[in-house]
Amino acid sequence: MAKFESAHVFDGVPVEVFQALKRYELYPKYLQGVTSIEVLPPKAKGSTAIVKYEVNLIKKFHYSLNMFEEEPGRIWWTLEDSNLMKANDGSWKLTGKGTQQTQAVYTLDVKFKGLMPSAITDQVAKANMPSMFQGFQKLILDLRSGS
Fold first, then answer.
1. CA–CA gap between residue 36 and residue 140 (Å, rounded)
2. In Å, how far are 20, 69, 104, 106, 145 from 99, measured between CA atoms?
3. Disulfide-capable partner of 57 in 20, 33, 73, 140 (CB 3.0 to 4.6 Å)?
């Protein structure tokens, strides 16, 4: 099991950040390695959607997540299906910081099928964090400007 937690300050108030994070269909345009997204109706009680990801990071794989949302402060998910993972639980917790910023705490708890050394999963996750935060910041700003 690989567990990650990282905090980042976004330019934008919590509702703007929340709105950007839940625009799953835009992820391929803004997040490196995400090649396609399909947003499906929810199955789990309380879920807002199932989001099916196709990702190409070292290896091409797919997974579907049950998404849960509490506007404007929290988004979390659980694994529905994957060809590579046994578990994928995570969340975004958003807190206003100052007048125009949001502290976002990203957590992820992943377990892969088969043998995958945690050193490799740690490196992949940590290497992708900066570009993920940059991609979401661009999405926040583009939504604000109406792009």
1. 20
2. 18, 23, 15, 21, 18
3. 33
CATH class for the domain made up of 2-145: alpha beta
**Pick from 13, 30, 24, 77: nearest CA to 53:** 24
**pTM for this predicted structure:** 0.90
Strand 34-40 relative to strand 85-97, pairing: unpaired
Decide if 110 contacts 118 (C-beta within 8 A). no
Six token digits for residue 142: 């583009």
Residuewise pLDDT in 10s, the chain (147 residues): 578 899 999 999 999 999 999 999 999 999 999 999 999 999 889 999 999 999 987 778 999 999 999 999 999 999 999 998 899 999 999 999 988 999 999 999 988 887 665 655 666 666 678 899 999 999 999 999 987
The residue extents of the domains of the chain are 2-145
Tell me the Ramachandran region of residue 85: left when phi exceeds 0, alpha when psi lies from -120 to 50, beta otherwise: beta
Q: Which of 13, 3, 18 is nearest to 93 (CA)?
A: 18
Radius of gyration for the chain, computed over Cα atoms and rounded to the nearest angstrom: 15
